[in-house]
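Case 265 in the screening queue. Each case pairs one protein sequence with one candidate compound; here the compound is magnesium ion. For every case the pipeline is the same: read the inputs, emit a complex structure as tokens, and attach any notable structural observations.

Predict complex for case 265.
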Amino acid sequence: MTGAARGVVLKLGGELLEDADGRRDIATAIRRLASRAPLVVVHGGGREVDTDMAALGISKRAVDGLRLTDAATLDVVVGVLAGRVNTRLVAAARVAGVPAVGLTAADAGVSSVQRAEPYTAADGTIVDLGFVGQPTGADEPELLNQLCQADLVPIVASIGADSGGQLLNVNADTLAGHLAARLGAARLLIAGGTPGVLDEHDRTIPSMSLDLLHGFLVDGRASAGMVAKLIACREARRAGVDRVDIVTGKHTDDLDTTAGTMIGD
Ligand SMILES: Nc1ncnc2c1ncn2[C@@H]1O[C@H](COP(=O)(O)OP(=O)(O)OP(=O)(O)O)[C@@H](O)[C@H]1O
Ligand SMILES: [Mg+2]
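Case 265 output:
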């Protein structure tokens, strides 16, 4: 096994990381996963960003789960994700015995990121997302491979920088899907607050073909953060990631056994 190839990319929704009990469970889940295969963790922090923005009187705007990011919003996103959320998770993982290393996509050897093109929303409108980044290129996430080879567990906050040094806000599912594809991971495991992808009756869909996934994207059964999530899952599957799941990460310390949706083809 070399680096993170054939390993697991685990994406954690920020909702799972807000309180100490949740972080303790997730840290144990990280330890279990890392004991079985090389592991790279990517996390978001959406709701904590919302809370800080509200406290500062900055209003939130998002389209298909992508946050419209002006300069004031970017400052909050960077401070919350790369600062508080990342550091707290790294510390909780260390307590659980995980040799965790915190970083962002602005670090060398994680992912090139460029400013996102204007976005065509599910409803057809074209939106300038502001300081939002898109992971790019076919470059190997060399640092992540090296950390995995050294039996360390990288924990990546979804902040990047473009070639001019401008910091950019990257959707954490988008980054996780891209890294899973670039690393040649065996599995992309996306854990969040909902028990997988829900149908129109709020029932978990156990498995979802790429055709059904497309249907959810075009007819609005997937909205908000689920849009970026499904697009990331599709990218990973198309790049050859064998197994892609969206599962609940709540009240569990073993993410291998939780209910969710398997994304197939
Ligand atoms: N069909 C669907 N099934 C499940 N959730 C859906 C669906 N359509 C829309 N959603 C919404 O997508 C949300 C998940 O995306 P969201 O971006 O909010 O969380 P996350 O990606 O886990 O967290 P973070 O952004 O912090 O990384 C759900 O809470 C739900 O409101
Ligand atoms: Mg999200």
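Case 265 observations:
- Residues 8-263 form a domain with the Carbamate kinase fold (CATH 3.40.1160.10).
- The helical segments are 20-36, 46-56, 71-95, 142-149, 172-183, 210-219, 225-238.
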